[in-house]
Amino acid sequence: GFPIYSLTTHLSTLLDKGWTVIVIDELVTGKSGPKQRAVSQVYSPSCNLEDCSELSYVLSIYFSQDDLLGITLFSAMNGHSIMFPVSWTDRDKVARLLISYHIREIVIRVNLGAGLGILINKIYNLLIDWNLFPPEPNAKIEVMGEALTNLPC
Questions:
Q1: Which long-range contacts (CB under 8 A, 24 or more apart) does 13-16 make?
Q2: Within 10 A of 104 (CB to CB), how many other CB atoms are there?
Q3: CB of 55 within 8 A of CB of 78?
Q4: Is the CB of residue 47 less than 8 Å from the CB of residue 76?
Q5: Where residue 145 falls among pLDDT bands split at 50, 70, 90?
Q6: How far is the C-alpha of 67 from the C-alpha of 89, rounded, in Å?
Q7: What angle do CA 44, 46, 51 make, to 5 degrees?
Q8: Which of 124, 105, 122, 119 is nearest to 59 (CA)?
Q9: What kind and span of H or E run contains 103?
């Protein structure tokens, strides 16, 4: 953590590195004793309302057991969203759509009917095919805060 007056100095650097920044303020209660705190702001790479120079999107991909993908693009800055299903065999057509959006975050939801190893390979290959997996060496896929390290690199 760091003091709130340092937020403007460090915010863009943290967001560019893919971090989510949560601002917690101390509440004025007028009571003595332990201080109460609450979340006042949340900044993420796709939802930085301080820097509106480029409209950023969150891409959500749902993997179902019947080889259907649910695709959602959402911009928190203007509320614009697009949702559509696509079959696994037509997945290459989605790349042409995604190229026109500035995607800063990807949320993946899976139906765990398939084996986890097979699913990780499917996710990894899909993101590579759509040019969405970052090329830097520390790139990772996180599942509920846990990094997947067995990627087929």
A1: 15/43, 15/44, 15/45, 15/48, 16/45
A2: 19
A3: yes
A4: yes
A5: very low
A6: 8
A7: 85
A8: 105
A9: strand 102-110
Position 85 scores a pLDDT of 92
Q: Which are the contacts of 101, defined by CB distance < 8 A and separation ≥ 6?
A: 57, 59, 73
Give pLDDT tens digits for 124-141: 788 888 887 765 555 566
* Residue count of the chain: 153
How far apart (Å, rounded) are the C-alpha atoms in residues 33 and 26?
13
pLDDT tens digits, one per residue of 91-124: 888 888 888 888 877 888 876 665 666 677 778 7
Distance between CA atoms of residues 144 and 68, nearest Å: 22
The pTM of this model reads: 0.59
- Check: CB of residue 124 under 8 Å from CB of residue 133: yes
Tokens of 147: 């990094």
Look up residue 22 and give its two tokens: 């949560």
* CA 140 – CA 133 distance, rounded (Å): 8
DSSP state letters, 21-73: EEEEEEE--S-SSSPEEEEEEEEBTTB-TT--SS-EEEEEEEE-TTSEEEEEE
Q: What is the pLDDT of residues 15-46, one digit of tens each?
A: 878 788 888 888 887 788 888 888 877 787 76
